[in-house]
């Protein structure tokens, strides 16, 4: 009986400690994803994630330039960036997954698109 009680106490203590770390990890991910990004393919589709919680996502290409939809985003400790943005009366929603220093998502007919950070000039 005492062994069971010790296991319950340990599970509660360590479980609470693990949850206390999650917001810090989400903040670390948020810090890591802030910046300008572009797809790693020939199209070089832009994406901008801002420190103030706003985001600019690609909406459509017009005369060789991208029209961006502006919105807001949230980040979880697992590295998932979830956003909602609007442009021209349309609302977009989606996600990016931060992993190994890059972002991955689905876009249009492609089920896997990789974004790389744009180097500051």
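-> sequence recovered:
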């Amino acid at each position: 009986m005492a062994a069971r009680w010790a296991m319950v106490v340990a599970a509660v203590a360590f479980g609470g400690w693990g949850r206390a770390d999650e917001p810090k990890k989400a903040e670390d991910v948020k810090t890591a994803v802030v910046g300008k990004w572009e797809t790693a393919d020939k199209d070089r589709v832009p994406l901008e994630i801002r420190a103030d919680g706003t985001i600019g996502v690609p909406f459509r290409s017009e005369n060789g330039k991208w029209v961006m939809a502006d919105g807001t985003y949230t980040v979880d400790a697992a590295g998932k960036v979830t956003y909602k943005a609007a442009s021209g009366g349309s609302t977009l929603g989606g996600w990016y997954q931060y992993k190994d220093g890059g972002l991955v998502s689905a876009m249009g007919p492609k089920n896997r698109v990789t974004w790389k950070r744009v180097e500051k000039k």
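The two ends are 65 Å apart (CA to CA).
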